[in-house]
Amino acid sequence: MMSQTYLTTDELSSRIKYDVRTIRERLKDSVLIEGVHYLRPFGGRKILFVWEAIERDMKTVSCQQPVGFSAIPMANGAILHG
Predict the structure, then answer these.
(1) Which long-range contacts (CB under 8 A, 24 or more apart) does 67-75 make?
(2) Is CATH 1.10.1660 the classification given to domain 6-81?
(3) I need a labelling partner for 74 at 20 to 30 A (CA). Which of 35, 36, 44, 52 fits?
(4) Average pLDDT of the chain, as a whole number
(5) What whole-number distance in Å separates Cα of residue 14 and Cα of residue 53?
(6) What is the C-alpha end-to-end distance of the chain, expressed in Å?
(7) Nearest-angstrom CA–CA distance, 67 and 50
(8) SS3 for 61?
(9) Domains of the chain: which residue ranges?
(10) Which 3 state secondary structure label does DSSP give 77?
(11) Does the pTM exceed 0.90?
């Protein structure tokens, strides 16, 4: 079993150079998907982000996406082009 790196919103903000507020209001639930990119341990309010999933999908979308083209990452790891 592969271990994963769990990050708080502040730690993720530091790694990807996005403001904490941007992560909470613009990325969470639109680009970052619960169960894939983040989880709520023990059903609580605290959110922990899965670094390996975020890093993988940032690279995947960045490498596959032509300039001016929108792509939506899907929960199963696929990408919806539209």
Answers:
(1) 73/31, 73/33, 75/33, 75/35, 75/36
(2) yes
(3) 44
(4) 84
(5) 16
(6) 35
(7) 27
(8) helix
(9) 6-81
(10) coil
(11) no
